[in-house]
Amino acid sequence: MNPQTQRIRQSAPPRAVAAAPSTFAVQLSSTRRGARLARLLATQWLDERGVPYRSAASHTAALLVAELAANAVRHCGSIGRDFRLRLTLGAAGTARGPVLRVEVTDARADKPLPSGPCRLPDPEEESGRGLVLVDAVAHRWGERVNDLITKTLWAELDLPE
Questions:
Q1: Of residues 115, 114, 160, 137, the one with CA closest to residue 67
Q2: Smallest Cα–Cα separation from 82: which of 131, 34, 41?
Q3: Which residues form the Histidine kinase/HSP90-like ATPase domain (predicted)?
């Protein structure tokens, strides 16, 4: 193996999670490509801030972004409206340690979440498992209606120090 290639393939030393709050926001098309891009941009952004790409925290964050973005695509894609992804990496040193907040805003405030706890769909149903997954892996999550047009689904993930 070429010495340069070997040096590039060696894993970098772990970086500390950013001490100051950091935010990333992007508006994407409500398509499968937009949802995929949201997940890829999120994991890249987290890696640049000290949450390694192949870590459990990165995989969990990618799942949260993917499910919330897929939900926005499902409800906004047919009407041709975009969705907005916003990631906030809270400061380390808080009572819980660093916290990642994932927010996906779509233009369907008229479609609120069903009330009550998440329920598993029947086995023959093709959809309806996304928010069940979010409920299972997020430490906190919910919905916020911003105005007559937009709503935000958010999820928080406590990161290891």
A1: 137
A2: 34
A3: 31-139
**63: Cβ contacts below 8 Å, ≥ 6 apart:** 133, 137
Our separate counts of H helices and E strands in the chain read 4, 5
pTM value is 0.77
Which segments within 66-131 are labelled E, that is strand? 83-89, 99-106
Each residue's pLDDT, cut to its tens digit, for the chain (161 residues) gives: 444 444 444 444 445 555 567 999 999 988 899 999 999 999 999 999 999 989 999 999 999 999 999 988 887 666 668 899 999 998 655 566 789 999 999 887 666 666 656 565 556 665 555 688 888 899 999 888 888 888 899 999 999 87
Q: Cα–Cα distances in Å, from 141 out to 4, 42, 75?
A: 44, 18, 19
DSSP letter at 20 equals: S
